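ugh ok fine here u go
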Amino acid sequence: MKKEDIRRKIKAQKCMLTDAEALDAADRVFNQLERTAAFMLADKILLYHSLPDELSTRAFLQKWQTRKHFYLPRVNGVNLDILPYDSTNLHIGAFEIEEPTGNDLTDISEIELIVVPGIAYDRHGNRVGRGKGYYDRLLAETRAVKIGVGYDFQLIDDDIDAAPHDIKVDIVITDHRHITPTHHK
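structure:
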């Protein structure tokens, strides 16, 4: 299935969710994430700061911020910088996303777990992002465990047309499923 078709289909499905359904789904996804060995073993975790149409990360950040070291991405040209999460040092950055401020950059090699946002995932770990390639460039530089999260309808049955530069995730967690993709494709 073509990525643009997937983006249109998923956007329409997200529009049908109520706020209560969205918050409930986020709770279920992040409760499952907390039980993974990757999360339990990781100290330094790169998380995304959610947009209104993504699973909300706010409650999860708040719950764990004193027990784990969280990092958020900040857009820098065509790449992402990694900075420590501090709820008092955020500003609205590129694409209307809250981003960390300051110059305390962290090398991606220090990150042990990356919670990756996506529009859709397939059973092989391929993902559809927003189309700018920020995460693919970042994920190509790391050996961290990569966990894709989303609503259950974001895990699609069709194979995603992946390009050679597209980076797969190691685990996909939805509000109803937790899969370890088969990387045959």
